[in-house]
């Protein structure tokens, strides 16, 4: 008998007045999974998280937590803990008092509070901070305390609403590693909202990519990145984004030709593409100078960006700018001609009208 999902969302809809902002959302995760809700600002990810938490009413559909229908239950009865973007710590309380406040309100004994505090502070490595007030802590330390307040309850589900967005770049990397370690150590079930694809790729066991209140793709990080379902996911995931070049696929005596404006790419026979207007996708890191399936004509370099670890080269292809990632010490200059090759396994084909993946 299959295990009951820790979270199951079925045909969920959310409206503000007559405007529907979440459209027919369905997904589920198993116990111990780390789900990331990912998408640009305004895509509905925080609204969906608030619906799961019971902070927003839903227009239709069901939310089940550990098999129980919680769609219309108040937040306090959903057996969840939430970590907010703003930390929301009580400034007049010590770290220990902030962490155990919820247990105290629920009437748990001092012994139970002390045991829970010891367990959580050890996991989060904040043992030495327990007597301090929030004003005496750094941003990363405050975020650990906010996480401790959630962890101390041992709920069915943890919800994180962009918890790292207020931190600087270095702290974000450190806290990202802390959250990943926490998940691997404790094995709790988490739902995490972010617009940062690096956070999503490094933390998630599964990612739900949202746009305009609709699920664009739901899958593992590897599925999302290496087999994007449509051009939105393809262009949203990755920095720089996947190149999407307009082309026309035609049959030849030796296989399939992809016409890309004044350039072309020759492939083995791919009958699914013949006669179709397509978008040819390839990621900057998958294009190489003189390797793989080489374009008919070399590309003229129109821009160069050196980032220290990489050199990003821009060139015109099929009427669009294409980006290729080269080694940091690549000897190349604006105006140079470069032959570009791409492995067949690294090519993506999308329908130009619908944006959906063909192959």
Please explain how this structure is put together:
The structure is a single chain. By secondary structure, this protein is an alpha+beta fold. The two termini are 35 Å apart. The strands form five sheets. A six-stranded mixed β-sheet has the order 6-7-8-3-9-10, with helices on both faces. Strands 13-12-11-14-22 form a five-stranded antiparallel β-sheet. A four-stranded antiparallel β-sheet has the order 2-1-4-5, with helices on one face. Helix 2 packs across helix 3, helix 2 runs parallel beside helix 4 and helix 3 crosses helix 4. Helix content is 24%, strand content 35%. It has eight helices and 22 strands. A hairpin with a 2-residue loop joins strand 11 and strand 12. The mean pLDDT is 93.
Keywords:
about 350 residues, alpha+beta, six-stranded mixed beta sheet, about 25% helix
Produce a short descriptive summary.
With 359 residues, the chain is of the alpha+beta class. The chain has helices spanning 45-53, 95-105, 110-124, 139-151, 169-186, 197-203, 221-226, 231-236; strands spanning 7-16, 19-29, 34-38, 60-65, 68-69, 80-83, 157-161, 190-194, 206-211, 214-219, 243-252, 255-260, 263-267, 277-282, 287-289, 293-294, 299-306, 310-317, 320-327, 337-338, 340-342, 348-351.
């Amino acid at each position: 008998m299959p295990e009951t999902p820790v979270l199951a969302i079925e045909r969920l809809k959310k409206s503000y007045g007559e405007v529907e902002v979440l459209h027919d959302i369905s997904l589920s995760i198993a116990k111990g999974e780390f789900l990331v809700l990912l998408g640009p600002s305004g895509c509905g990810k925080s609204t969906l998280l608030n619906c799961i938490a019971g902070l927003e009413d839903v227009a239709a559909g069901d939310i089940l937590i550990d098999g129980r229908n919680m769609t219309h239950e108040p937040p306090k009865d959903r057996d969840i803990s939430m970590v907010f973007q703003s930390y929301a710590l009580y400034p007049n309380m010590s770290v220990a008092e902030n962490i155990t406040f919820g247990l105290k309100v629920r009437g748990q004994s001092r012994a139970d509070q002390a045991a829970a505090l010891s367990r959580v502070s050890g996991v989060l490595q904040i043992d030495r901070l327990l007597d301090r007030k929030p004003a005496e802590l750094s941003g990363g330390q405050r975020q650990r305390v906010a996480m401790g307040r959630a962890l101390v309850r041992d709920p069915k589900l943890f919800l994180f609403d962009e918890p790292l967005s207020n931190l600087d770049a270095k702290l974000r990397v450190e806290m990202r590693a802390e959250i990943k370690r926490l998940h691997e150590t404790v094995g709790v079930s988490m739902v995490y909202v972010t617009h940062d694809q690096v956070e999503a790729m490094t933390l998630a066991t599964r990612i739900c990519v949202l746009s305009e209140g609709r699920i664009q793709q739901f899958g593992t990080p590897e599925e999302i990145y290496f087999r994007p379902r449509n051009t939105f996911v393809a262009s949203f995931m990755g920095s720089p984004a996947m190149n999407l070049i307009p082309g026309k696929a035609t049959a030849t005596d030796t296989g399939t030709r992809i016409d890309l404006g004044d350039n072309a790419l020759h492939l083995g026979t791919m009958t699914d593409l013949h006669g179709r207007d397509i978008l040819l996708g390839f990621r900057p890191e998958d294009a190489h100078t003189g390797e793989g399936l080489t374009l008919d004509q070399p590309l003229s370099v129109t821009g160069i960006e050196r980032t220290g670890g990489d050199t990003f080269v821009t060139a015109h292809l099929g009427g669009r700018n294409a980006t290729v990632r080269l080694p940091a010490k690549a000897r190349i200059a604006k105006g140079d001609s470069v032959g570009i090759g791409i492995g067949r396994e690294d090519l993506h084909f999308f329908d130009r009208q619908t944006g959906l993946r063909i192959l």
